[in-house]
Structure formats: structure tokens, C-alpha cells
């Protein structure tokens, strides 16, 4: 195995580690330098930097400080990389740490970030997932286990100053349309909790005040949360600054399409083994604006699916115009309703759909006024037979455990 | 092979065929009756009822009368089916007619329905696809061929009067928000071109005036345009009226997720072989609102993909809030831009993405404010190597053919 | 669909059809001519030419005249093909006839050909399989159904005289080592029942006396019985005579690796849609001695397997040296024993393994003295759960039906 | 990660490690004890115990002492296991050691074990494979890389005394038929180099004199070399002694069906994470003689294949009767011939087919006198296009490197 180029210590705060940062800004100094063709290992905190524990309380999820996220390892400078190049990144492998053989999933409180179904699940809840080699299962969600489709939720290159300004412009504009919205429309720059790596003093303060938050995916990649960008895949990133500046974090043991639970997938600390190379001038040659990638030859296959349809009519019966977001929400709600017939609580079903390798397809997007989205639930991950039959469902799940919940403090 | 339960004659207008209808209404008389466990064949017109020809002009696409679509075969009554049941439908096979070994794809004029990218491709264009057994290729889009993932774009059960009223209510409400929009937000009931099957006279007129158009997918299934609901799959439909009333049409030889070109997939006439059965009271037992289904064991597999990301920032740089529709549009535009680097015209690339078995995934839908959608382009369908390399793309496509175009008449 | 280039009439004997032959010889006249790039349809008898009926008696299997098989359609001349070329054949599609929506499987009497397990199942037995679109099931083997991996058991080019002589030499040599063996080691040329297509008179008689039997696969392809050489695959055949002379027959609706039951797969009459092209001088360019091929993108996938191991120690406990044949026989016997625990008769299990898409892998072939072969049984084709569990197997199969049997006549 | 239950030290001889053994005998003392439901890690030497080095000489392969192999870790006692039970083993994960990020493949000298094609490649040769995360490539075989389908070549339970006696009986019987054969027909018990774990003194000597060699697979599993028995799979082993006695070794980073090169797959040292459980009385309940298993959901998929046929006519043109071993040899030779057209040496091609995830299918085994075997070569593992085309093959491989060779010493 390659040596760790950048290491972390799970027993210390990520703020003490100069090779970690939690904002995007071109002035964040490079933490290490490699050459094209090199492979190397980066160690990563979980996205919250250790705020969530392996226990049966959801209070840590409720009380999480989201201004701190995501803690990324890097940036790594690639020698010779220049703006306009494509940075090829082979994700050679991803692994867990021996001292942290578990991950967490949860939904935030509606007043602190929420999630895809925050109107239905407004309180903080949590599930803990134990790792057994390639497999995972949860003491909070019985009857299911599966192999991890391990991937980085967040990986990307440093933005140029021009690109950063563009991000700030467009996001502020949206923010202003409803600044009081809960959950917020946009996470604006926030200097207090910014970790700018090795950048210190007034330079740090100046950059931190305008540095982009890490929550959304953007042109450089970033927090795409694409489950299929997994170990074994090959990614082509746009390069915006000299040296590219590759950073990575937010590792996931497994996730469903959409990362609907927001907190998030099965979140973990771990290490990632990468190899980098360059296509000089590749952005123009191939007309690249956002990253493109090739999936891994080594992904868990659970090819028997039960597929739920959703259309863009919301829970109140209101008709929306080709709104895939709403259509997918309906498909997800339909799947949750189905799962409860087998004994799961709604929260268990919701959490499961955020963690397991479910697919979310944009099935029809032109048949006005209804978009049609489909949620693909792999049936082989269940210990029991989940398919419909003429006898009706059997309550395999006894209801003796549920996800911990932590209502908002008054 | 089972005998055709309901036949058609491609040389005659669908309006002359009593076993065809093009609206949804509970009063449409059953065209045939079967028992649970029966299997049977239904013959289907292409969705336009023969308005589009195998030629090199897009004028027929430009001039199509969309108030006529979709011509469906049925409804088929299933003995013993009652509201609240689940109707299980095995799609045993789908095939083409010997006299129509071709299909069509196109984008409508922006003033007549448009398509997913109508702002970019405002004029009517068309591509013709020849069938050679399981495979198809187009004289208008060189360099590509693939096996058909054949499926019905439209299949569903008759709505009850209550459900129909609900559809009309919610769609009218949306329509009123912008009645002059081009393309229209909603296709309202339209009696003139309604084909109500065997329903005649004043009963026909009364029903036609309120019968739902067939364009959108709804709770009964309908025009879902789900490419994976293909031959070999098993579908569970809600039953809303006595006898269920199963109708089907809009057969597709192949389609990409989203059916982005709207006109549509590779559209074809053909036959479909079905078997039906019932789960009594299944809607309540399994908590079913929309159809659910299991995919076929027999689907073409093109497992090498190049995947394009898109985020919910539109072409003008405006930031939208978790809008998967816009994110998928960006992913599609990114793929089109990429394909043009190999010599395809934009229209060829757009059409190809509507026809080939591309996947559209809802990858991230919680990372405010950006949704992340991915378009999965199968690379093995191309005659040449489409992957990025350090030399840059080669123009394999010479540009000597393009899609026919028919600008709007003044 | 392309027109049938060569047709058959199921109601007439194949001996009356000049476009059919049942021996290999370079002098068999071409039945039709096509050009490189052409696609065309050939209609085919089942391999026995209609000797087996859709009934519940195995007497026809017992009494079959194996000197008649296999009835092939062709040969088709490809213009410009010369010895040393490679003939590329795209299998565009394969289908059944409306009047024969069923197929048969069986094991021959030990005294009339036998089968892989003829010592264990010495009497003629038969199962009938009904086709429902892409799927098949048998009234003689309950609890199982699956999609057909349709393929030609037999497809090949005409041998040159030199090649034919070589076949006759080497096979005769083997025959002489044990001429009285039952079943026979080799099927020698046999003029009486030879059908030489359009060849008549003394020329026919002379050729028939030396024409090769169609039973074994050879350098030209022939009776390979490779289940994966299915519709959608692309095959490269050596060309030995001017015009190549492509013939095909012995269509199978489905088969397991090995075609262990010999009579055979799920045997059917039907049509096959082919496209041909040439690689001039391809045998030398690519060093080709036997056909090579690429599998279809459209094969049924039943990816959950229960895998049985077998080693080259025979049923009597005798040790054989790296004998894969014996190792596979043990794996097959192990699978049969397992299936009987769920209520199947041995004959049902044996027949099922001959018909379903089981895989047979040569897993280890160097670990002296034991070869290791594995039989892969797809579990999703069963209506019930076939996997081991702590409670032991449940007898889902009630034993009220079995395969018809026809003991040898005294 | 679970702790290592049994550890090794790569810098010390396996003979110094009491938790290792290289023979099968019921008297080998248990090295550790676990309970049903436990998971644990076993560390394993490479099969030769470190005799082969990461260098460019094949002398170590030539001079290997095969009487020492295979070094196994164990036996592990499972509490409560009794003869007649089934031992369920989940292979939760397998990994490499940081200090040994490489593996080796080779063919032995014909006078020292040989290999599947020893008549064609009679001298010792070697290739070294570097690991980069999940992927591997070799400096001795350019143009190819692939993800590892990691698996234990050897895993099994202790035999009872009765079973051991049966093994010795039948293998000696075969040995006597040609005791002077080179390579040998059977590896007889050989006390000198036997490592009997903790067994010492006269008990050790007595057991060593009759202990079975580890080369062949047998009823207890053992050296099956089944590439698909990989991490993520679930295996059911017969139990022959109290406590079962599970041992494992001979880890492979990757292997082709057949392990044709004998030395062997890509051989590695590493660790394996297992979980065990019991089905009481399972051998009788399920009729189990040899192990059965379910494949992993997480296997590398290279689904584009070029498939080579072989029939049971040997290289000298002699006809054999349904001999799958010979048929597979022809398929392998055909593939090697094909690969040399692209510039590979025969030895490179042979080694590649032993290492890469090629499939070997028993395609037809009843069409007397020819068996038909197929070798499935995954084309996506090559950096270049390996498919036939009308222009003929291009020599992508320049021939500047080859496998080291070490001719026999005089």
C-alpha cells in the first residue's frame, strides 16, 4: 500500500491539523505536492470531524454545528497542472480505520438543516451501522445488510478567484429571495468556524470571509454525493488553479441515490488511495464544465429490484410542473409506506433508503405536467422476502427497536 | 404465441378501430374480457397513430396533431377485479410488425409541444431508426447501434370518476397559473379529437369533454415512459374501476431515461404479450398509490458508462434550489457538448440521448442549493472509442448527414 | 423483419425440403446466395425433424432415430467468401413459430445415445416446456420458470474435403478402440438416412457415404451447443470452401452449460435472423482454428447462484487424473441430490439442469490429481427459497407429477 | 476491523509458526477456538511460504520445494461443531499486507510439477504483479490491468481419520498406475517437510507419515482454486471432526478459471476476515458431499468477452472422447495464439490467462466424441482494442519485455 501522504489523528480536533480545511478558496495553501502518475493515500475525518458518536442518542445529530462541515484533506498540488487541464483521478481504493469500524446516518432537525423529507421527519434521528469487512448492518434497523459501495461524498479541485466570485454571486442572489427560510436556502460564507488549512492571520481572515461553504456540488466537483463515484472509478476534474489543488473528504461506506437523509449516507472516517494524471488543455478539448467519470468495475450488485414510481403531484395534491424533486419525493414516500407494511417504522425506512444502494432514476421528464421519478429498492439486501404476493405482507420486523430521536430543545 | 385479443390494421386510421381510445375516462367501454391467469396479445399503433413517416423530412413532426395522442389499445376487463385490488401484469414479450421495421424519434417545434431542450432546439427535427432483429441504428446518426430495451411508454388502468375529477382539478389549477405559456403547462380535455373507443353519441360527447388527456403519468400508471418497465418486467397496478380496464400503447423500441426528446423514444407500432392476475385488496395491504414493478431478467446490458454531472445552475448562471430538472438538463447539455467534439451535431447528440439506453440518476438532492444529477452514457454502443485520452478527441463522425429539420411555418 | 430466405413447413418431412440437410460434406449444393452485409432469415426444424411430440409419453424419445439428426437449414453461400477468410455472423434475433409454442427436453435410452448421466438414468424420459413470450415453464417440473437464452445449438460452415477426411480419419480411429460400446463412441457416416439437400443420384450416394455426422462440434463450429452463442452474439467462423456454406439448426429455447441431458436443451423449431460479413484472410491474420465469438448484450441475468463443487473422484470412489468430465458429473450429481431434498425427483432435477441457464465452470484443472468443476444453479428461477438455512429444506415440491418414462422394449 | 486471531510474521519461516500447517490430518491440534456467530481475522503466508521473490529471475520458481506447500493458517475450532454439521463461512473481506504490495505468477518446470500447458512451456517462468489498491498490473506483461477478484485458493475443514484413509487409498491406487510419471500423478504423503502445527514428537511423526498433501481439492474443500469463492461469498463446508477445524491459505489477488499456470494465480500473502456459523446436521438435511457456496455481491465485472472454443481433439490431431480437459486446453491454446498476433509472447499470454478473471465454461459435454469448452477472455482489461476487425490485428505489444525464464539445471 502506498504511504499516507496526509495523515490525521482521530483523537485530535481537525482544527489542529494543517492538512485539513473546510472551505473552498484559491488561497488555501497546498498541503502536499505530487507528480502526474503518482499514487498516494489521504486520510480523512468523517464529514463532521467527529461530532457524532457510536451511541443510542440522537442529541449529537440534533446539536451538530453545520458551519464546521465538511473537513477535507488537502489540497494536494499536482505538478504541472494548469487552468484548463483535466485532472484524471483514479480512486484505487478506500478503507476504514481499525479504530472506527462503524458509521452513522441521520436526519437533522428541521431547524438545523433538515433533509429531503424534513416536513415528515422534523426531528433529529440517528442510526449506527457496524462494519464487518465489506458488509454493514445496523442495530437500529433490523432485517437488512449489504456490501458497501464505498465512495467519497466530496472530492474536488480548488476554484479560481473568478469561479469563487461567481459562486458567491449566484448563491447570494438566491439567498436573498428568502433569507429567513428554515431550513436555509443557501449556506453563505462564515468566517468564524472556517478552517483554512495552513493559511493564518489576516490572510486567513480575509479568505475565510469569502470562502465558499462546502455543502453544494459545483463545477469543480465538490460535495456531489454520487454513490457511483466509488473506489475503482476514474474521474476527470476541471483544473482552475495552478497545481489543481485536489481535496477530499466525507467518505461514505454506502449511500442511496439522492443521499436523502442528508446526515447523510453511512458516514465514516477512513483513507482513500488515489492516482493522478493530466490531460493538458482537456477542458477545451472535451468541452468539460463539470467533472465526468467512469464507474468502477468493482461495485456490489444487487440486481433484483422493487421499483416505486412517483409523479410531481405533492403530498397535498398540488400539481407541479415537471418537478423531478417532487416526483422523487413521492417515490421515496411510496417506498417508505410500503416498507412500513412489513413492520418498519417510517424513520427506519427513511434511513434505510438513505443508506442502502437504492437507485433514483429520472424516468420521464417531458410528459407535461408530470415528471416521473423511480426509486429502485434492491430486494436482496433484506433477510426476508419483500415482494408482493396474494397473501399480503408479513410483519417480519417486530418493532422492538427504532431510531433514537432527539426533539428540538425548547 | 397467444392469439391477438385486440388487433389493429396499420393501413386504417385508429379512429376506425373501436378497440382503440386516446383519452382516459371510466365510461370508456371494455373492449375485451379476460380472466385472472390469462395471457393475451394486444396490437398497438405508434403513439401518433401513423402521423410520422419513414422519410427524410421533419415536416410531419412539425405538423403533428398532438391532440390526437396517444392511441391506446383496450381497455381490457379483468374478471373479478374491483377497486382496491392490485392488478399484476407480466409483460411476457413485445415485438414489431413485419411491415414496419423502423421507428422514429424527434423533437417537436417549440410552438407545438417542444421537448426537454426546446430552448436550444426550437425547431422540429426527426431521426429514423431501422430495426435489424434486436438491434437498431439510424441513417441520420452514424457511428452508433444498440439492442432495444423494448417497452410500452404507456400502460395503465382506467381511473374512477373521483380520480378523474381530481386530475382535472389539479391540472386546471396549474394551467390557470400561465394559460398562455408556450409550450403549454397542461393539456386540458379536448373533445374534438377524442377517440372514446366504443362509446358513441351524447355519452361519448359528455365523456370526451372531461376525459383526461394521455400525456402525463398519473396514479394509474399511464404515460410513465419508464424505459425499464420493459418486456419481462412485472407490474402491479392500482385498480380503480370494476374490471380494472387495462390499456396500453406508445411502444418504444428503446429510450433513454427522461425521454428527453419527447417525440419521443424510438417510437414504433407493434404488439405486446401480457398475462394478468390479481391481489385482492392489494392497494391497502401494500400501501400502494402509484404502480410498482420488478424489472426484467432480460435487459440489454451496456455496462461501460461515461457519466456526466449536472448541477442546478442554469445556462444563464442562475442558481436554482435543489432543482433536479435543471440539474439533469445541465448533465444532458454537458453530454451533448462532449459528443459534438467527436463530430456529432447538437441535434444528433440530443436525439441519441433520447433514444439510447442512457441512465439519468438523481445523485444528490439535499446539498443546498445544488441538486446533482448524472447522465450515464453507455460507451459500448458506439463504433469508436469515446473515452477521454491525452491526445484529445478524434472526429470520427464526418458531419455528412444530420437530422432533417422543419422550421415553423410563418 | 427480413424475409425468410429459406423456409420450412412443419407439416411436411424435412426430407422433402431441398434447403435442408443432415450431414456435412463440401459437395452439398448451396441452397441460397447472399452478399456480405446482407441480413436474412432461415427457418429451422427442431433437431429431430419433428420426431418428438407435445404429449406425456416418452416413447418417442425412446424410439427416436438418431441417424437422422440434425436437420439443418442451408447451406447459404456468401459471395466472395474464400478458404482462409473469417465469416462474421451477427445473430440478430431468434424466434419461435406461432404453431409451436413449446419445446422438449429428454434423456435418451442408454442403448440409444444415452446422456451425461446415462448410468443413473438409463431409460428414456421427457419433459415438455411451454413458451409464454420470453418465458418458459414445464408441466412436468413444477416450481420453476425462466426467460429463454435462445440460441442455435448447431451453426457452422461447410468443411473442405481435406478437413472432412481428417474428421473421418480421427473419428474412425477412436471408434475402432471400442466398436461395440453402448452408447457408441462415435457416430460414423451412414448413408441410408443422409439428407444431402439438393444433391441427388450417384453424387448424393457417394457423398452420403463419407459425409460427416452432425453430432460433434468441430473446427467449423457445428454442434457446439454453447448456450451463450445466443441471439445478439457475433460469431467468427473459419471458411473452408468457396462461398463458406453457412448452415444452422437445432435451435434451443434455453440450455444449461454442458447440455447434459443430450435430448437435449429445450429443443424447438423456429427461425433465426442473421447478418453476414467477411474478414478476408482472417484465419491467418488472427490465428483462428475454431470459431470465436462475442456474447450478446441481451441475455437473461439470473445473478444469484448456489454453486456446487465436484472433484474427479467418481461415484465408485475411484480417483481420476484431472478429469474435468468426471468432476462436472460429480457437481451435477451433487446438485441433483440437493434438489431432491426439496421434493424433486432425480429425473426432474436432471432435466432442469439440462434446460435452465446453469453455468458449468472449469474451476481448477492443475491441482493433481483432482480437477474441480462447479455447477452454478441460478436460484431466482425457482418460485421458492432454495438456499440452505438452519431449519433444513422444506418440501415445496409435492411429488404429484414426474417426467414420463419409457423403458426399453424387450 | 476484527483483531487477528492468528498472526504471522513474513520475516520468519512458517515452520516457526505453530498456527500454521501444511498437511491435512485430524490430529493437528486446534490453533484457536471461536463460537458460532464470531468473526475473526486469519493472517496467511503465500502458498510457498515466501520461496518466491519480487525480482526478474525465474530461478526461485524453478527451484521451489513443492513438498512444503501449502502453508495454511489454522485449524480454527468452532465450538459445538460436530461431524455431519454444515459450517457456514462468510468471507467478510480479504486484504494485502502493507509490506507486500505484489504477487507472483509462474509455471513450474516440467520436471517439478509443470502446469496445464507444460508440454508447450516446459521451463520455469515467472511474472510479478504490482498491486495499486484494488488493481494490479505486471511489468512483465504490458498492456493489461484489472481489479482483483481476491479469494482464498485453499480453505477447508479437517478430515476425519476415515476420510483421510479413503483419500490415501484412492490416490495411492492412481499413483501406482504410473509411479514414474513426470510430472507426478499424485503427491503422496511426505513426512520430511510436513508442518503439523503444534503437533510434536512421535505423534507428529506418525501423523506426518500419513497426512494428506494439500495440493488437490477434496470433499472438505481444500485447494479448490475457485476464483469465485471470493471475498463476500458464503460457503457451506461439511464438518468431519469435532470442532470442524477450519484452515485457510493460498490467497490469490486474481485468477482465471482453471488456475492453468499452477504457480498459480497471482499469489500473495495477506489476511482474511471470516464469520462462522453452523447448520446442525446439515450434511444429511441438504445431501451435501462437497462444499457449496453463494458468490459475492462484490465481484469485478468485465462483461465484454471474446470467447474461444476448444474441442477434444488434441494438438496432434488425435480424437479423445468427451474429454473436457483437452477441450479446455485447445481453447486456451487458441486464445494464446490469438494474443500473440497482437505482439504478446506465448509465455505472456499463458501467464495472463492464469491471472486475469477469464472464465472457463464446460459448454457441451454430450456430443460424442467431442467435448466443447470455452475460454472467456474479458476484453476491457486490455489498454487496446482486442476485437477482430477487417484490417487485421495491430501489434500493440512491442516485445521489449518478456517473462523471465529459468531452464532446468543440467
TrEMBL record, chains A, B, C, D:
InterPro entries assigned to the protein according to its UniProt record, in alphabetical order: FmdA_AmdA, FormamaseFmdA
Coiled-coil blocks: none
PANTHER family: FORMAMIDASE C869.04-RELATED (PTHR31891:SF1)
NCBIfam families: FormamaseFmdA (NF045496)
Protein name from the UniProt record: Formamidase
Record organism: Deinococcus piscis
The encoding gene: fmdA
Amino acid at each position: 500500500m502506498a504511504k499516507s501522504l496526509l495523515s490525521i489523528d482521530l483523537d485530535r480536533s481537525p482544527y489542529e491539523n494543517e492538512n485539513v480545511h473546510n472551505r473552498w478558496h484559491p488561497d488555501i495553501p497546498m498541503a502536499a505536492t505530487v507528480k502526474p502518475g503518482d499514487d498516494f493515500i489521504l486520510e480523512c475525518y468523517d464529514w463532521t470531524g467527529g461530532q457524532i458518536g457510536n451511541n443510542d442518542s440522537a442529541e449529537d445529530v440534533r446539536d451538530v454545528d453545520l458551519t464546521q462541515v465538511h473537513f477535507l484533506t488537502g489540497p494536494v498540488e499536482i505538478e504541472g497542472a494548469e487552468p484548463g487541464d483535466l485532472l484524471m483521478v483514479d480512486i484505487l481504493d478506500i478503507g476504514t480505520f481499525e479504530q472506527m469500524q462503524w458509521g452513522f446516518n441521520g436526519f437533522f432537525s428541521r431547524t438545523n438543516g433538515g433533509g429531503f423529507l424534513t416536513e415528515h421527519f422534523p426531528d433529529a434521528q440517528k442510526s449506527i451501522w457496524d462494519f464487518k469487512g465489506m458488509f454493514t448492518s445496523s442495530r437500529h434497523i433490523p432485517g437488512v445488510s449489504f456490501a458497501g459501495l464505498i465512495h467519497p461524498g466530496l472530492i474536488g479541485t480548488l476554484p479560481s478567484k473568478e469561479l469563487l466570485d461567481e459562486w458567491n454571486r449566484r448563491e447570494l442572489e438566491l439567498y436573498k429571495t428568502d433569507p429567513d427560510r428554515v431550513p436555509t436556502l443557501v449556506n453563505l460564507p462564515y468566517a468564524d468556524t472556517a478552517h483554512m488549512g495552513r493559511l493564518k492571520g489576516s490572510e486567513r481572515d480575509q479568505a475565510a470571509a469569502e470562502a465558499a461553504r462546502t455543502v453544494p456540488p459545483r463545477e469543480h466537483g465538490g460535495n456531489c454525493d454520487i454513490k457511483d463515484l466509488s473506489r475503482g472509478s476514474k474521474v476527470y476534474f476541471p483544473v482552475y488553479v495552478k497545481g489543481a489543488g485536489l481535496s477530499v473528504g466525507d467518505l461514505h461506506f454506502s449511500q442511496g441515490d439522492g443521499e436523502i437523509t442528508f446526515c447523510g449516507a453511512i458516514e465514516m472516517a477512513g483513507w482513500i488511495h488515489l492516482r493522478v494524471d493530466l490531460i493538458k488543455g482537456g477542458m477545451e478539448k472535451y468541452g468539460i464544465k463539470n467533472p465526468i467519470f467512469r464507474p468502477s468495475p468493482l461495485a456490489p450488485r444487487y440486481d433484483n429490484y422493487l421499483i416505486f414510481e412517483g409523479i410531481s403531484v405533492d403530498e397535498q395534491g398540488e400539481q407541479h410542473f415537471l418537478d423531478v424533486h417532487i416526483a422523487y419525493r413521492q417515490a421515496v414516500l411510496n417506498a417508505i409506506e410500503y416498507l412500513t407494511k412489513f413492520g418498519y417504522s417510517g424513520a427506519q425506512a427513511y434511513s434505510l433508503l438513505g443508506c442502502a444502494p437504492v437507485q433514483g432514476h429520472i424516468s420521464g421528464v417531458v410528459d407535461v405536467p408530470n415528471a416521473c421519478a423511480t426509486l429502485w429498492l434492491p430486494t436482496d439486501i433484506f433477510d426476508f422476502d419483500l415482494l408482493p404476493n396474494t397473501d399480503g405482507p408479513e410483519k417480519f420486523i417486530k418493532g422492538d427497536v427504532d431510531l433514537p430521536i432527539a426533539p428540538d430543545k425548547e
